[in-house]
Amino acid sequence: MSETNSTTSAAPPKAIHIANTADGSYDVRKPLPYPYHVEADGSIARQDYWRGQPARLAGFQRQADVQHVDVLAETWLADPDLDVVGMFPVFIDEDGSMWNSTTPVSA
Predict the structure, then answer these.
(1) Is the pLDDT of residue 24 over 60?
(2) 8 A C-beta contact, residue 54 and residue 92
(3) Cβ contacts of residue 70 below 8 Å, gap of 6+?
(4) Of 38, 46, 64, 76, which alpha carbon lies 20 to 30 A from 14's?
(5) Is 17 in contact with 38 (CB distance < 8 Å)?
């Protein structure tokens, strides 16, 4: 008799890769930066690693120095074809502080 897990129907996390090479690409063989895995509800997976810094994805902005979310996390998560490469992820920490990566998404 096989057992089923009720959580198997949940969507797998989407990954945000930040460039970690001089040419702006993401090399999986390099250790830093660790990719962000975003759950379907916008929370950041692997909190054993992140420890609430960040806790959630708010969205993405086109410019690192302009504090404006151009694509909401909910929009990106709902549309698997939405391209955010070149945009800067905006995060919310467990204490409610918002911040953005200064390195754009590379994959």
Answers:
(1) yes
(2) yes
(3) 59, 60, 61, 62, 87
(4) 64
(5) no
Q: Is the peptide bond before 54 cis (omega within 30 degrees of 0)?
A: yes
Question: Cβ distance 71 to 82 under 8 Å?
Answer: yes
Q: Is the pLDDT of residue 33 over 80?
A: no
E strand segments, the chain: 14-16, 36-38, 56-61, 71-72, 88-92, 98-100
Mean pLDDT in residue range 26-45? 78
| Single-letter code of the amino acid located at 37 | H
How long is the chain? 107
- Map tokens 């916008």 to a residue: 42
Q: How confident is the model at residue 69 (pLDDT cuts 50, 70, 90)?
A: very high
pTM value is 0.72
